Amino acid sequence: MALITEVAFHAHMRKRKIRGYVFYALCLTAVALGLVMLAALLYNVLSEGLSRLSWDFITNFPSRFPERAGIHAAILGSIYVVSIAGLVAFSLGVGAAIYLEEYAQKGTFASFIQLNIANLAGVPSIVYGILGLEIFVRIMELGKSVIAGGLTLALLVLPIVIIASQEAIRAVPPSLKEGGFALGATKWQVVRRLVLPYAFPGILTGAILAVSRAVGETAPLIVMGALTFVPFAPDGPMSRFTVLPIQIFNWVSRPQEGFHVAAAAGIIVLLVVLLTMNAFAVFLRHKFQKGTQW
Amino acid sequence: MSQIDGGRIKFGSGSDGVSYMDQDKQVLGRFQRMFGLRWKRNLTEAFIKYGLFLCAILSIFTTAGIIAVLLFEAIQFFQEVSIFEFLGSTKWTPLFSSKHFGIWPLVTGTLLTSIGAMLVALPLGLLSAIYLSEYAPRRVRATLKPILEVLAGIPTVVYGYFALLFVTPILRSISDNIMVFNGLSAAIVMGIMILPMVSSLSEDAMQAVPRSLREGAYALGATQLEVATKIVVPAALSGIVAAFILSMSRAIGETMIVAIAAGQNPNFTFNPFVPIETMTAYIVQVSMGDTPTGTIEFKTIFTVGLSLFVMTLIMNLLSQYFVKRFREVYE
User: Fold this and answer.
1) Which residues form the domain of A219?
2) Residue A291 has pLDDT above 70, yes or no
3) Which domain holds residue B38?
4) Which of A78, A201, B9, B121 could share a disulfide with A288, CB 3.0–4.6 Å?
5) Ranges B191-195, B203-207, B294-298: which has the least confidence
6) Residue B49 and residue A103: Cβ atoms within 8 Å?
7) Which residues on chain A are in Cβ contact (under 8 Å) with B3?
8) Do residue A172 and residue A191 come from a single domain?
9) Is the same domain home to A155 and A12?
10) Residues of A with CB below 8 A from B70's CB?
11) % of chain B residues with pLDDT over 90
12) Does residue A197 share a domain with residue A65?
């Protein structure tokens, strides 16, 4: 005794299949929407700003007149601040990762640090700006300087460096380390000669990602007190400064159309820098993965 | 500390004709060198260990620093403004001559934009994740993922530009009720910004669902849709929930899009067409102005920052709880 007839089964099956096609179409649309938005964003920026790009735009200081405004001070400021942030975050972050992976005994304390790092990665970037303003600018009296900005961003990207480096170090085969110990190497010798070289591509990729995050950050530096109009190039670690994203923000916020065009041109420069860095990270990872053979 | 202890000393037998005196001296010299070397080594090792320990502990100092700074200034703020005013009033006008310190307009502004962003990012992100994890051929997936990651890597100030100068004009051409600064445009663009985060974290969770579960369902005659929505999504649910919470927390803390496109008017409203102000945008507004340090206006940014920190911290911890629960099931 059949519970359903063959006809009913096929009708039902067809319904299920149609539902499947509809859902598949929905999924495709969702992915396509994301891509369309990315394309719209890039097209919008390029069509607005490409004609404004020129050598003068790179070498001019900001100006009251949109046609003359340039990003010289902003680019130099970004380079200064991000270099400091990158160097500090890299050395401290890799150090912390080595400690957590190779030295720390697994226990409550280590997992507490781990939880803490995960939470720091989720703290809104603007809160780091408040921290930088209070600790570096006011308590350590560094002023609203390049170095205070660099340290603020260093704290911001530190969790990224730590987490990426930890993953890279964790992927080092234990046999490699044990081989080192068997030859009489000390812990640090094993870490420096075996673990770090093996984990280097992963660490570097994480560091580049962290730096590209730092390049694009705006809010923490505004809160920390970076300037929005800087008609001079920074001349040392104690100099006041602006960065490219703040310059873009400043131009976007102005009512004149000319400044919006300048903002679009600034965005093109920013995106080119970021994409180059990401491509470099991918290239490095690829190259080292091929080169490292144990 | 070090797992290998230097080397071991072999005593010579004296068969090579060296006098015992010389041999003693030699052994002694060797021993001293060895001991000195080991002492130096141990010192270096200890030094490095504590140096690395300091690096690791810095993260705890950072958290402690954040909490201390925010609390210190917020407590001073609450000595001048009662907490009932802060949590009871629906007016936020610290920068005006008649000051009101009710946080609610900033909270509604923040919730409006971040919930709006989630309404965009949640369905799109989840569907993209299902596509990438369950439907996409390997090669398509390998191209699509990096492209979506590009979306995640675009600085937020660029999204702010996009919201104000591209999305808002389109919205305004649809309806005249929409103002130049509005929550809607900021919410939509913020949704696009966090879409890759929702999608990539949810996809990770779906990829971790064992293949055998899917194959069991197929063997029972399920279609691809049924496997995706009735097997994979429920099995990955806590991972997906964690992704949502984390993205929501990201949206709450997002600054530049709302500072550029949503306005600087702390309105106690859920109307997405009018200018509003979020907590983060308020902090930027005060920082951009020339508010003297030490004044009550200046202290408000720490109080608002503290509220922001607490909100995101709770959500991050919640998200970690869900991730952990997920791991316990499948690993």
Assistant:
1) 58-291
2) no
3) 1-80
4) A201
5) B294-298
6) yes
7) 181, 187
8) yes
9) no
10) 127, 130
11) 60
12) yes
Same domain assignment for residues A31 and A67:
no
- For residue A224, the chain B residue with the least C-alpha distance is B287
Amino acid at B160: G
Amino acid letter, residue A105: Q
Same-domain check for residues B242 and B289: yes
Asked if residue B189 and residue B47 are part of one domain, the reply reads: no
Same domain, A19 and A164: no
Helix axes A146-170, B20-80, angle to 10 degrees: 120
B274-303: average pLDDT: 90
A126/B55 touch (CB, cutoff 8 Å), yes or no: no
* Same structural domain, B165 and B43: no
Ramachandran class of B221: left when φ > 0, alpha when ψ lies in -120 to 50, beta otherwise? left
Question: Is there a single domain that holds both residue B216 and residue B134?
Answer: yes
> Taking CB atoms and an 8 Å limit, are B153 and A123 in contact across chains?
no
Q: Nearest-CA distance from A204 to chain B in Å?
A: 17
Q: Are B116 and B246 in the same domain?
A: yes
Name the average pLDDT for chain B: 87
One domain, residues B11 and B101: no
What letter represents residue A4's amino acid? I
Residue-wise pLDDT for A173-202, tens only, equals 999 999 999 998 999 999 999 999 999 888
Which comes out higher in pLDDT, residue B93 or A26?
Answer: A26
Residue A63 counted as domain residue: yes
- CATH code for the domain in which residue B92 is found: 1.10.3720.10
Q: How far apart are CA B180 and CA B304, in angstroms?
A: 26
Nearest chain A Cα distance for residue B232, angstroms: 15
* A37 lies in the same domain as A113: no
Q: Cβ of B157 and A249 within 8 Å?
A: yes
Percent of chain A with pLDDT over 90: 65
Query: Using 50, 70 and 90 to split pLDDT, how confident is the model at B327?
Result: low
Residue of A nearest to B161 (CA): A252
Cβ contacts below 8 Å, chain A against chain B, sum to: 254
User: Cα separation of B195 and B151, whole Å?
Assistant: 8
* B29 and B124 part of one domain: no
ipTM score: 0.90
A136 plus A174 within the same structural domain: yes
What chain A residue is nearest to B324 in terms of C-alpha separation?
Answer: A115
| A186 → closest Cβ in B2, B132, B228 | B2
Structural domain contains residue A1: no
* A94-103 confidence digits (pLDDT tens): 999 999 999 9
Contact assignment for A29 to B252 by CB distance below 8 Å: no
